[in-house]
Amino acid sequence: MLVQTINLKNNERMKKFFLLIVLLAFSCQRNNDSLKHSLMNQDWEFKMISSGDNRPNFGPTNDSIHFIPILLNQGFELEEIREHFNWTKKSFDEKVETLYESEFLKKDERGIVKANVLIFTIEDGITIRKSILPVVQEITESIIARYKFIVSKTKQIDCLKDFDFEAISLYMLSNILLDDGQIENVEREYLKVERPLRGGKRYYAAYLGKEKGSLYESFGIYGNQMEGYEGFSLCRYGNQRWLPEVMKTNESLKWQYKDSLKRKELNIPVITEACNQELLWVANDFKPELLRLLRKYDSTLRKGYLEFTNSSQLNYEEYFIWLYHILYTEITENLIDRELIEIPEDKVSFYILQF
After folding, report:
1. CA distance linking residue 7 with residue 334, whole number of Å
2. Distance between CA atoms of 348 and 355, rounded to whole angstroms?
3. pLDDT per residue over 199-209, tens digit each?
4. Which of 126, 161, 200, 234 shows its CA 20 to 30 Å from the CA of 306?
5. pTM across the whole model
6. Cα distance between residue 97 and residue 115, in whole Å
7. Concatenated DSSP letters for 284-318?
8. How many CB atoms lie within 10 A of CB 241?
9. Are 46 and 60 contacting, i.e. CB atoms less than 8 angstroms apart?
């Protein structure tokens, strides 16, 4: 009877042991499936706000290195990430060290490795768009109220006076009024801090989710791309800057401008230093109203930051600067819907800086 009791106990132990193995296997498979889902459900783009040589000293998306902070941010462990990509320990450790040196990773007070760069998923973008709707609407209406004045001032700028305003409306109402002509004002007079210091360089950095197969950049954000050549820079502003047809036009414009005979045939703005100062005047004229509205909604914007899942690792300024890009993009879309901005046939607004 005693032997039978012991056998029964052993059988119970064996059952519990096998159940534990099954649960562990299921857990590992679930984690692996969850990781694959995180990788498959959206694409990612690296974005940066910088000037001069202020930039990362490594390729932020080379050899899938960006998935280390992205997946850490989604709750996966370093070893899970290494195993999924089948990286050797040496290769993986080198990647992690590179991210530490560039301050894309850091350890929290408990010694747990965390992402130290802003990461917006597609879901984050949806939440942000909802939260900023009131300020987007007010800024949109404020621009509409000034529309005729902006058109009038643009017609007085020497290098733009021969263009129909519709042809340069994206450049003026989005790039000059909200983005390139305004971003330093927002940093200096609303955020009132320098750009973050990472690895000895000052720049804002982010990984932004993007719908798979989308022809538009992450969250449809409008932005500038500048390519410097001897004596000039060729720029394109929009949210489809890397489409093959856009790049083909970009290449054609570059060679056309380099040819002094063909240069006169160009039908894009050529911005001189004097012209740029006049454009900055237009931006600065709108600056007080923009700052007033950002300050009016400051508590709402900061509430959104506190609810953001990564807020414990990043300060408000790093969160806001990318929220601002979504904000002015939403305003741009509103102005397109109101038929005050017209998207060029080339899909982006090309222009040349000659200073």
Report:
1. 75
2. 22
3. 999 999 999 99
4. 200
5. 0.88
6. 13
7. HHHHHHHHHHHHHTHHHHHHHHHHSTTTTTS-HHH
8. 19
9. yes
Give 130-173 pLDDT, tens digit per residue. Answer: 999 999 999 999 999 999 999 999 999 999 999 999 999 999 99
Judged against a pLDDT cut of 90, whether residue 308 lies above it is answered with no
191: left (phi over 0), alpha (psi -120 to 50) or beta: alpha
> According to the 3-state scheme, what is the secondary structure of 133-145?
HHHHHHHHHHHHH
Provide mean pLDDT across the span 291-308: 95
1 vs 245, more confident: 245
Residue 171 backbone dihedrals phi, psi, to 5 degrees: -60, -45
Dig out the tokens for 171 from the structure: 């450049």
Identity (one letter) of the amino acid at 244? P
Read off φ and ψ for residue 236, nearest 5 degrees. Answer: -140, 135
Which is it for the CA torsion 337, 339, 345, 348, positive or negative?
negative
